[in-house]
Amino acid sequence: MIDVKFNFKKKFVEIKGHAEFDEFGKDIVCSAVSVLTQFVAEIIKNEKNGNYKKKDGYLKISWKDNEMSDKLIMYLHDALKGIEKSYPDNLKVEVNK
Predict the structure, then answer these.
(1) Which of 17, 69, 72, 90 could, after both became Cys, cross-link 63 (CB 3.0–4.6 A)?
(2) Given a cut of 80, is residue 97 above it in pLDDT?
(3) Domains in the chain: how many in total?
(4) What does the alpha-carbon distance between residue 9 and residue 6 come to, in Å, rounded to a whole number?
C-alpha cells in the first residue's frame, strides 16, 4: 500500500510504500503515483519553490507558500484522491491540516 500524507500547514507531502497492485514493471498504480508525484516535485524544485527527498519507496516534497506551488499541490492531491477511489487497497491519501 502506498501511504500519502499531505500537511498543508507545514507545507509538505510524504509518499511512502509500494502499491503491490502487480509485479514490478507492471504495477499501474505505482506508475501513476510515481509519475504524478515526481513530476510535481521536479517542477517545484526547478522553479525554486521548494525541494524534495527521494529514495526507494519514499518521496517527501516541501514547498514554499506561493500560488503556483499551492495550485500544483492541490492538483496533485486531487489526482491522487481519484486514484485512491479506484484503487483503495493500494493507495491511501490522508490530509493533516
Answers:
(1) 69
(2) no
(3) 1
(4) 9
